[in-house]
Amino acid sequence: MGQVVRTRMQYFTIDEDRTAGYTGVVDAAHKWKLPGIRNCPACKATWGGGFAYPCVDLTPVADLANFEKARPEPIEEYERLCALVRPLLPPGALLEPGTTFGPLVGNGQGRFGQLVSPYPWWLLARREALEKLQAEELRGLEGCRLQVRFRQRNAPELLELEILPAGRLHPDCLPPGSPPPCPRCGLLGVPLPDDLILDAATLPNHLDLFRLVDFSQVIVCTERFVDACKRLGLDGVAFRPLPSK
């Protein structure tokens, strides 16, 4: 019976609501980042993708200058830098090449909704919107204030939500015969499918907002999150249901 209930849970992806009429633009990047990997000794790939941990402060880390510029490095150097930041990560956090840390730094302008998703892998919220959601006792909601300069009066106070990795896509939505991840660098050499199906057995029961472990650009929320946003009248994003099996 427990398995039946789990597979019936509703999940959604979050997209920018282009019908809402907002004009907001954020041109920014995270303050620190891990390098990508250059010429993995096993699969020969050069790549970087990465998770984002905007609430993680790297200022205590030695060799901080090595986290300021995006670049590929040999895997041994990447692994050395991973060891320096790993003690600062929140529980459940994972690292992969290109993972970023610290607040978004840059410029912004325009009108913003209560929730903002300028890219599928970012979710921003006005402070008052995040506080309302946290009051609903949704699980896994923490935000970091942007270091973004808004060239306008009445600039919004936006925070980026720190979204932990959890859950995977079901093998049925991947191309037949897809190779396993590289055993050395972890690269999954498969593009994001057009039609996503979540693997119900991997989905967390302690988070209402998470990003997929195998495709970090995909943010997923539960129906509890969607219901709270609708009840509170939080606009700026649209929700698209995702099947699971």
What does this structure look like?
This protein is an alpha+beta fold and about 240 residues long. About 15% of the residues lie in helices and about 25% in strands. It is built from four helices and 14 strands. It has helices spanning about 1-10, 75-85, 125-135, 225-230; strands at about 10-15, 25-35, 35, 50-55, 70-75, 100-110, 115, 125, 145, 145-150, 160, 210, 220, 235-240. A four-stranded antiparallel beta sheet has the order 12-13-1-14. The longest helix is centred in the first third of the chain and has 11 residues, at about 75-85. It is globular. The two termini are about 15 Å apart. The model is unreliable at about 1-5 (pLDDT under 50).
How is this structure best summarized?
With 245 residues, the chain is an alpha+beta fold. Helices cover 15% and strands 24% of the residues.
Annotation keywords:
14 strands; four-stranded mixed β-sheet; alpha+beta; 245 residues; single chain; four-stranded antiparallel β-sheet; globular; 4 helices
Outline the fold blueprint.
Elements: H1 2-8, E1 11-16, E2 25-33, E3 36-37, E4 52-53, E5 72-73, H2 75-85, E6 100-109, E7 115-116, E8 124-126, H3 127-135, E9 143-145, E10 147-150, E11 158-161, E12 209-211, E13 219-222, H4 223-232, E14 237-242
Parallel strand pairs: 3-5, 4-6, 6-10
Antiparallel strand pairs: 1-13, 1-14, 2-6, 7-8, 8-11, 9-11, 12-13
Mean pLDDT: 94
The major sheet is characterized as: 4 strands, antiparallel
Helix content bin: 10-25%
Which structural category do the helix and sheet elements fall into? alpha+beta
Radius of gyration over all CA atoms, rounded: 18 Å
> What's the helix count?
4
Q: Strand share of the residues?
A: 15-25%
Topology pattern, helix = H, strand = E: HEEEEEHEEEHEEEEEHE
Question: Kindly, what is the distance between the CA atoms of the first and last residues, rounded to a whole number of angstroms?
Answer: 15 Å
Tell how many strands the DSSP assignment holds: 14
